[in-house]
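ping. complex inputs:
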Amino acid sequence: MTDLTCLSAAALADGLAAGEYTSVDVTQAHLNRIADVEPAIHAFLHVSAEEALAAARETDAKRAAGQKMAPLAGVPIAIKDLVVTKGLPTTAASKILEGWIPPYDATIIERIKAAGLPILGKTNLDEFAMGSSTEHSAFGPTRNPWDLGRIPGGSGGGSAAAVAAFEAPLAIGTDTGGSIRQPGAVTGTVGVKPTYGSISRYGCIAMASSLDQAGPVTRTVLDAALLHELLGGHDPRDSTSLNEPLPPLVAAAKQGASGDLTGVRVGVVKEMHGEGYQPGVEARFNEAVAQMQAAGAEVIEVSCPHFPYAFDAYYLIMPAEVSSNLAKFDGMRFGLRVEPREGPITAERVMSATRGAGFGPEVKRRIILGTYALGAGHFDEYYGAAQRVRTLIQRDFAEAYAQVDVLVSPTAPTTAFRFGEKVDDLMAMYLNDVATIPANLAGVPGISVPAGLSDDAMPVGFQILAPAKADDRLYRVGAALETLLERQWGAPLLTQAPAL
Amino acid sequence: MSNEKLVDYDDAVKRYDPVIGIEVHVELGTRTKMFDGAEQGFGAPANTQVTPISLGLPGTLPVTNGKAVEYAIRIGLALNCQIAEVCRFARKHYFYPDIPKNFQTSQSDEPIAFDGHLDVELEDGTMFRVEIERAHMEEDAGKNTHVGGADGRIHGADYSLVDYNRSGIPLVEIVTKPILGAGERAPEVARAYVQTLRDIFRALEVSEARMERGNVRADINVSLRPTPDSPLGTRSETKNVNSFRSIEKAVRYEVSRHAAILDAGNKVPQETRHFHEEDGTTSSGRPKSDADDYRYFPEPDLVPVAPSRQWVEDIRAALPELPAARRRRLHDAWGFADAEMRDVVNAGALDLIDATVAAETTPAAARKWWMGELSRVAKQADVALDELAITPAQVGELQSLIDAKRINDKIARQVIDGVLAGEGDPAAVVEARGLEIVSDDGPLLAAIDETLAAQPDIVEKVRGGNLGPIGAIIGAVMKATKGQADAGRVRELIIERIGA
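pong. complex structure:
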């Protein structure tokens, strides 16, 4: 039997359907892999081995009984610890939620369970998804499987590293400013931020509600499409959930896998590469664009003149919403409760002591920023102005998509940096999201696919953006690029990663 | 009780022009909460009507209750308001344990209804127009109980309990424009306005509108100015004044208190005040200023409410007859004098009389009972008319017994006593107590003969043509039959017997 951890989710699903192995086999293989590599990687905050095996047994029993199975039934999955799981600890990588066992499941967890995917555990992240490196996790960073001295990206570094290290074939991420795509880029994996509203946010602990979007973290574009189709679709519990069916995503990925891009108009965004981008990143990006052109794509340079302001708008809107969304963490109903060391025990003082002790510095920084930005007299100057920029960015996208089918850029300006390298240089850390942020502000979908290795032997991500509700284009073009590049490399990029 | 310096009310309104403003919160009687599927209803054990959403657990999202929006529109239309084509919810932030998210979802600058008016009838029949600024939707907070300490207030309490059953119950808050020109009648206008609103809520069937359960709560703003031409003075806001009598008292008290402050040459501080039911005074709550910073911003988890014009018109067409129109209709139908009608309305007897008339009683008879004997009984027991343990149907039955000459007016009072004592419907009481008028001549003749035999001198007088003393004989016979005889028939029989 082949090593089950090396197979894609699609291949595992086929093998399970053909009866070549059971979900228990597949789940146990991944639990073994987790036991082997976790000391080095630390992708997981909690491994739910028993629950995963119980779910695997149940799925196997249903299959044996001849029941109709969901396409990914029996394929195990890892969940970013920002997503609420009934009965499993959910921390958001924060001390303030340490020990909280939620009494309910997120909608996407319900869908995962209903489809029979065993949940391997909860993956690490920057506290409340605030960061680009997992260095802001209250429970220690995750290491990049390509180089244990480097960050795995963030905030969803745990999910990306788990998939890159073959601890899980599938994972869930959430993307507010790039937290799925940037970790995908720096770990050589695939990450998709769907159209805003494409996947329910109910049960995803909110960072910035108008930007947050859960999505797939996988090793192949087809796997991402399979997972997106499982997770997506209307949810009456999320008012912002789109009330229309998903476009056919798996079909688009299969169409793209031929590598043919004839008739596809690809826009290279002038403002999203070049200056400020690492030369190796820029080189892999340009080579990939050339491959696409050779495969029949019409490549056009387009300008999105307001994109340079996206970063500033993001750093007003995001903290403003953070300051509001994180107000509920007060020690009154769940999670950490800290009483002041001296003086009266009043509600206000308990809230203050709890928040002081429970939140890490990056979270506090953003709460303070956001509280200030929403303050009386500042609203128009900050939040209001940022929303106007947001409108301009949406307009840029609309104008670009009048000329092209997809937009492309490097996913992140650099490859994975070393631990500690940027933790004291906030602007440099924040700028890692400069290419991913515009999609969140406009609500449009984006994917990061591996584009090769930079001069430092670290993976480079290639970002494809599509118009809202046209997520199928990500899969069509992403799968085509994946095929073209793997033809060139002779094997998936991850086969070049060092052994753990 | 209070150390405040007060000016006699009549004196105060001679020298100052009172301006009032009223904010009324009404809890909507929807089956579920404003943004949450939790059931709501009065009297459930603490924290049983909650879901993860009511508790603001991490990851939860609100969804707007469409029924609550419909009820809010009903209220807006009944108050002659414009209905917004699009309006958004906003988050109003403040930290307090009874609001689980530490923000209240409310409408700040985009109310669903605005620019209306309500004509209020005062006790003497004068109509007074109250201009409505807005009616907006929001969610209620939980309920705090402070345990220990002197008077159930938070200050000095040992600990506090929070019941989240009320958290998230839909509210509509109706805000008046400054009510000018009420003069010395300001307390009456305030009471009549809230009473009229209460009646409208009931007629619209949007709330049980029971003041004593807190379904309707009023905040009363009062300010004084030297003359009606002067600019508005500084206002105080007396929170949670929850009975009609208290509303009058609160206005009177605040007018007297403000006048004393102004007389002393001081400034009225802008603050919220607590109302004390027991003695009708208010005391200082917390200072309030326009600098209160709630950091409002549009609720990103909810889509805007955009009631279609068609829907609004459908709701308007389905509005029930409102209390004022109904009063006019009934006034015409019943033919009561203006003063009689006013008394009926002021006594809270309108619905009771209407229902009694529906039980096939003449309006005059219905009015006679409710405004006469029953009002007397209610007053004696210090309860409202509609709290008496007798139904309009029972009053109708009583009158029909009289019309059928089975009882007379005097016995009817005993029947009422029986009904109020829980002895059953009037007919059953008559039966059980043996109150039916004696219409069989046999027992009557026996009583008459006995009386005549005892009073030979009177018999002589009557025989002699002097009918005057016959009354004494009738009285004696009635006494002997315990009042159950038909006096007219007794007279006939006596005359027959004496042969006068």
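Chain A has one domain: 4-305+393-496.
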